[in-house]
Amino acid sequence: MQRVDLSGPLLAIWFWTVILFLFAPLFVVIMFSFNPSEISVLPLRGFTFDWYAKLFQNEQIGTALVNSLSVAAVTVVLSVVLGVSVAIGISRQRGKLSSGLLAFAAAPMILPRLILGVSLLTFIDALGLRLSLWTVMIGHSLIGIPYVILIVNARLASFDHNLEEAARDLGAGFFTVIRTITLPIIKPAIFAAALISFTLSFDDVVVAFFTTGVDNTLPMLLWGLLRHGITPEVNALASVTLLVSGLTAVVAELMLRLSVRSPSSKSTKENDNG
């Protein structure tokens, strides 16, 4: 009797079950954002864009969106400048020192956001600073920097440092080498890290909750609206936030793939084969 191998179909069923479990809540939120009724029940009673129109007419939401974009923009600049600098420094170390520095730099990633938020609030209060969007930017930068370090360091791991040495032999200084050799080659990884930093900042609620003052970010406003119940307007706002975050993540993934397929990596492989 021939044995039937069911591992393939079972694995496929398991895969799509997990995918459905992950994305079904997001689909439900988007679906109810087009519901003309204020009550989120099935079946839908029609299809409308009215809730999205109300979002753009809501001055409070517009202000929160501007705040979120401003915080995310400054967070990207701080995270990229500091993260890239640290990643380049770590890449120039060798052996256990490099691994230890990388692990230490990535440590904030494993800290619960709640602990990080409480720690930041205590630190800010000890310095006597007033809570504002600037303190939110500081908190979000602490979230984004480790991601920038890991992404850029991964690109630098396959970087051909012989190019830098050749430039120095020709008389180029340290900053000239960084500006003309290193940064152009790792540019796709920097862009990807910047986009991920933007997404992390734009979506964050926990750290912003502890570090913001009277000005709301968009996720904070959404959190406040949820206290009054889930309405189609809340679903529409969540859908817009999801769209922005999703598109940013997709572009970041494309930039990472571009970084992996960059000419530098190819030339390094060709040199190794030669």
Description:
The protein is mainly alpha-helical. It has a single domain, classed as MetI-like fold (Orthogonal Bundle), CATH 1.10.3720. Helices cover 77% and strands 0% of the residues. It is built from 12 helices and no strands. The longest helix has 33 residues. The N and C termini lie far apart (54 Å). The C terminus is likely disordered.
Low-confidence stretches: 264-274
Q: What is the count of DSSP helices, taking H or I runs of 4+ residues? A: 12
CATH architecture label name: Orthogonal Bundle
Largest sheet data: none
Instruction: Report the span from N to C terminus.
Output: 54 Å
Number of strands: 0
CATH topology annotation: MetI-like fold
Question: Helical amount among residues, as a percent range?
Answer: over 70%
Query: Mean pLDDT, nearest integer?
Result: 79
How would you name the CATH homologous superfamily?
MetI-like
User: How large, in whole angstroms, is the Cα Rg?
Assistant: 23 Å
List keywords for this structure.
274 residues, mainly alpha, MetI-like fold, 12 helices, globular, disordered C terminus
TL;DR of this structure?
With about 270 residues, the chain is mostly helical. Helices cover about 75% and strands about 0% of the residues.
Layout of secondary structure:
Layout: H1 7-32, H2 50-57, H3 59-91, H4 95-105, H5 113-127, H6 133-157, H7 162-169, H8 174-203, H9 206-211, H10 218-226, H11 232-260, H12 263-273
Helix pairs in contact: 1-11, 2-11, 3-4, 3-6, 3-8, 3-10, 6-8, 7-8, 8-11, 10-11
